[in-house]
Design goal:
Layout lengths: L1 H39 L3 E2 L5 E6 L15 E2 L5 E3 L6 E7 L9 E8 L3 E5 L2 E5 L9 E4 L7 E6 L7 E11 H35 L4 H20 L1 H5 L4 H24 L4 H24 L6 H29 L6 H21 L10 H61 L4 E3 L3 E8 L7 E7 L5 E8 L4 H16 L7 H12 L8 E9 L4 E7 L4 E4 L7 E3 L17 E4 L5 E5 L2 H4 L9 H11 L5 H15 L10 E8 L1
Antiparallel strand pairs: 1-11, 2-3, 2-5, 4-11, 5-10, 6-9, 6-11, 7-8, 7-10, 12-13, 13-22, 14-15, 15-16, 16-17, 17-20, 18-19, 18-21, 21-22
């Protein structure tokens, strides 16, 4: 069975890896297709031609009025600078390449503020508020006008100008390439959304497993990033006033969602650390938004205010991962790999943006995908283990249910056995004009081996038997029932105690399976006021007489029943008087313990009987029962079945 489960888990791993490879393959195919299309069609990067700039304190309605000698050439591969307060930046480059294009446009990947574009003297494009996360397709006249001029007046505190790719292209070519470049993001977004819904479903099935909820939130945030940065976001550009705030809030929320996910998988100390970092992230974000509030650009300006906390979060995540991994926690290796990949990818792209690295290829999207892939694998593995755990628990539950049903049936059988045993016992209260009888029995389990009986013959005389089968429980109860039948068989000889024990012993020998029975038997002649008794290895019984100085102990010799086939029993006779009380009992009374481990004992019993000797039989019986109950703290320290039979001579 374990081999089958192991095989299924290995198969699951292979399928998951193949799924990741297929998605990456689709992405790379579209990226390669896009690259090949770019290589095969006419286009010109602005970075490869001469570029010039000019700072002006006033807005120029016609940038061509500036003398040629006031334009300053760019020294680096850039189209922007650090912002100067209350100054306009003008950037100029030649438009001669458009002669080779049928429907020329200028593709600008990103600009971080509103700007105007002039082709010659004509203003051909004005960027709108909230356009700073979208690429710009700027239409141009097919006839060169000499120069393209960008006018920037930025509210962004960190940078002014164009960034990333700025390329002359055909309009149709630009649209196709834009779609193809963003297809993988557009394709990936709904997959992430569906997975988010699936894991949310897992959470509702297992509400205690917060990892499913947190991973669902992380996937939802990731799907929004992919959708809003892809062709979907570009297609919804007319709703930029809603799309841009949503995108930036989600950019800020994603690290927070990542921290929530890490909280649900890391050991307790790091969970508390990540909770502290997550709370700091939220507080610093709102402080940054409040301090940098300005319509249309607030989210962009606030980035500089809270970027340092994101860097701190990355450092904390890296060192936490390394520490946990170094301590031998291999269960989190997928999480650690995912964290390291996204941080390395983010660092790489930051170095590209800062022009520390000369190439312009960005890997954050692939790092982002691989991180989610590793995280997804971890969560799927957790779900798989949880599923098997549930199956094991269900199997154990079924086994426990069967065991419970068996125990319930045993309990029913014990209840029936208890009822049957009660029916075998004589009534606990009986009396006539000369005798009063009270009996009590407290079994250690549902059924027990103690047994008492009393019967009256045709002459009005009474016979009393109390027996104790060795051990306790069902086997002892069955032997007690056999003793009852043996006593009934000796009915014609009730007035001869030794004869009764002889007949009972002959009936029981060889049938008790290593169990034996101790017993006391008493026959009271109500006419002559004599009591004849025999004993079969049982404790002596007591005679309480008000005129005596102490409790009288009545003893007769004899061995237990059921052990030896040829066994004789002695008989003893004692005279009795009105008001006499006689107590027959089992040794369970002596063995009763209290909380300190002290036994009730013979002396305590005799002392109690003597102290309350003047009470009537009912009261004396109640006092004895209550004393035994309180001594053992509600029978908590009972070690054996216990019974007694009290007889009063009227």
């Amino acid at each position: 069975m374990k081999e089958v489960k192991s095989y299924k888990f290995i198969l699951f791993k292979i399928q998951f890896v193949l799924f990741l490879i297929s998605i990456l393959g689709i992405q790379n195919c579209f990226d390669l297709y896009s690259d090949s299309k770019q290589d095969g069609q006419l286009q010109q990067s602005v970075y490869l031609i001469d570029r010039y700039y000019y700072w002006s304190e006033e807005e120029l309605l016609d940038p061509e009025i500036l003398p040629e000698n006031q334009w300053i050439p760019f020294e680096s591969k850039s189209l922007g600078f650090k912002k100067k307060e209350k100054e306009y930046l003008y950037v100029r480059f030649s438009d001669q390449f458009i002669r080779q294009l049928q429907s020329p446009i200028l593709y600008a990947e990103i600009a971080l503020e509103t700007f105007k574009v002039f082709q010659g003297k004509e203003n051909v494009y004005i960027a709108k508020d909230y356009d700073f996360i979208f690429p710009h397709l700027i239409p141009l006249s097919p006839e060169p006008k000499g120069f393209i001029v960008f006018q920037f007046q930025s509210r962004y505190s960190g940078y002014i100008g164009l960034d990333r790719d700025v390329i002359f292209k055909n309009h149709s070519q630009a649209l196709i390439e834009l779609f193809m470049e963003n297809f993988s993001k557009t394709f990936f977004a709904p997959i992430l959304l569906v997975l988010s819904i699936i894991f949310m479903g897992f959470y509702f099935l297992r509400r205690k497993e917060m990892i499913f909820l947190n991973f669902s939130i992380l996937l939802l945030s990731a799907s929004l990033i992919e959708a809003l940065n892809g062709f979907v976001g570009f297609s919804l550009r007319q709703y930029a006033t809603y799309i841009v705030p949503l995108a930036f809030i989600n950019f800020t929320f994603f690290p927070f969602a990542l921290l929530l996910f890490l909280i649900s998988v890391f050991p307790p100390f790091f969970r508390n650390l990540f909770k502290l970092v997550a709370a700091s992230h939220v507080i610093i974000f709102f402080i940054s938004i409040f301090r940098n509030y300005e319509n249309g650009i607030s989210f962009l300006n606030s980035e500089e205010g809270y970027n340092w906390i994101v860097v701190l979060e990355a450092i904390v995540a890296i060192f936490s991962s390394i520490y946990v991994f170094s301590k031998g926690n291999r269960k989190l290796r997928e999480i650690i790999f995912g964290i390291l990949i996204i941080i390395i990818a983010g660092l790489h792209d930051t170095l590209v943006d800062l022009e520390v690295l000369s190439h312009r290829f960005r890997v954050i999207h692939y790092g982002f995908f691989l991180m989610l892939g590793f995280f997804g694998y971890y969560v799927f593995k957790h779900y798989w283990e949880l599923l098997h755990s549930i199956n094991r628990m269900n199997a154990e539950l079924r086994s426990k249910n069967k065991e419970l049903q068996r125990l319930i049936q045993i309990d029913k059988d014990l209840a029936l056995a208890h009822a049957l045993q009660k029916s075998l016992l004589s009534s606990k209260y009986n009396e006539d004009e000369k005798i009063r009888i009270i009996g009590f029995s407290q079994n250690l389990e549902s059924v027990g081996g103690d047994y008492f009986d009393h019967t009256k013959d045709s002459m009005g005389n009474w016979a009393f038997l109390i027996a104790d089968v060795s051990g306790h429980g069902i086997s002892s109860a069955m032997v007690a029932a056999m003793s009852k039948m043996a006593f009934v068989g000796a009915g014609p000889y009730l007035q001869f105690p030794a004869r009764v024990f002889h007949l009972m012993n002959r009936h029981l020998v060889g049938k008790t399976k290593n169990l034996f029975i101790t017993a006391s038997y008493l026959f009271i002649d109500t006419e002559s006021y004599t009591a004849t008794f025999s004993n079969a290895g049982h404790p002596s019984f007591y005679l309480i007489r008000n005129t005596e100085n102490e409790v009288i102990q009545l003893t007769a010799k004899g061995k237990p029943l059921g052990l030896f086939s040829h066994q004789s029993y002695a008989e003893e006779i004692v005279n009795i008087q009105p008001k006499d009380k006689i107590l027959l009992y089992t040794d369970g009374i002596f063995d009763l313990l209290n909380a300190e481990g002290e036994s009730f004992g013979e002396e305590r019993l005799k002392s109690l009987l003597w102290e309350y000797r003047f009470h009537n039989l009912q009261d004396l019986s109640s006092i004895l029962q209550d004393s035994l109950f309180r001594f053992s703290n509600g029978w908590k320290h009972q070690m054996d079945d216990l019974s007694f039979l009290m007889v009063e001579i009227k």
